[in-house]
Design goal:
By secondary structure, this protein is mainly alpha-helical. The protein has helices spanning about 5-25, 30-40, 40-50, 50-75, 80-95, 100-115, 120-125, 125-145, 155-175, 175-195, and strands spanning about 145-150, 200. It has ten helices and two strands. Helix 1 packs across helix 2, helix 2 (about 30-40) crosses helix 3 (about 40-50) and helix 6 crosses helix 9 (about 155-175).
Amino acid sequence: MRYVESSVRSPQIVAAARRVMMRDSVARTTIRAVATEAGIPLGTLQHVFPTKELLLKAVIDDVASESNAHTGSLVRHAGLAETIREGARSYWHGLIDDNVPYQVMQVELLNYALRSTGDDFSERWPFSAQAAAVVSLLEATASNAGEVTGAPFERIARLFIAGLDGLMLQYAADLDSRRAEEDLEALIDATILYARIRPSH
């Protein structure tokens, strides 16, 4: 087999691991199953990721990067209220709606990170990076629109992410799309109300 750099193999392996985890669950995923899914020898995979723990960390980083990239690509609308409203809808329909296996994988990865030992939890699950991506979006929008808020951007971001995570769990449990849409709109309204947006002058 032609030699391929680890930096090239790594994304291929992580993508295969995500497919296996969404199909079989995180707990049932094995290094051998991922190697088979990726179409590479087991030894090649173990050269890149010697342990399942290292592979899981890479998958967590990949999922977080995907979420942050989606947030970074959102359109900055004319004002904060519209950006929050349209950004939340875009995020929901782009990463959550009709993608239950992906949601379940995220929950299982979070449980894994919570139960892992040795490292600080913030290093195992990048909540701060997720919040920072939302804060960056809010700051840029507020600056362009000449608006300020009555609550810190970071707190708005963290509360909103927590609300989205809760809606994701409910939707994964009951698959009630209509209720999820209604609850999302309620979360958006509550976030805008809490933000207390006003002109800067």
